[in-house]
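User: I need a structural model of Peptidase_M16_C domain-containing protein from Haemonchus placei for a docking pre-check later this week. Nothing fancy, just the predicted structure tokens so I can convert them on my end. Input:
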Amino acid sequence: MLFSFAGQWDVTHATSRTAPSRWVQKISHEHGLQFLQHFNIHYKDTGLFGVYYVSDGDDLANSQGIMRSIQHEWKHLAAAISDEETTLARNQLRTELYQNLETNTQKAEYNAKELLYTGHVRSLAQLEEEISNIDHNVLRATVFKHVYDRDTANAGVGRTEAFVSYAHTRAAMSWWRL
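Assistant: Understood. Predicted structure tokens for Peptidase_M16_C domain-containing protein:
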């Protein structure tokens, strides 16, 4: 469901300032950003969550600005997410889920992934119940547990002078909470 908060954006979208995601509204016209997408790969006992983005890569300040915006949004999800934002993300997740199950081929692919990731196939009623049970407290706890103060894996292609250092990225993954 965290993917629903950030969503995806690229420079061809006409909805940058009016996007449903507050994060896309903030970051879409800054730092030479061309494309942005969260990803989540999960299995029974492990997973990988992160962000893939493409930027002009002209200078370090732009790259740092993008990373700072990403990490700021993660901090917002861990500490200050509202019920209204959670409801919006739940509805976006439902819409995306049902759109991805419209054809037999899509349903077969979904079933195969469910078997691979979880070992069983959940019914749509079970999925709907699980989505309905997610509230802002659950999301805060999840982001705080799995994203806050965690190591990152960074990879880049292009000018190394414009790539954010690991130490800078790692230091920004934690913050003081009152």
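Before docking, keep this in mind: Helices lie at 2-6, 22-27, 60-79, 83-99, 104-118, 124-132, 136-146, 166-171.
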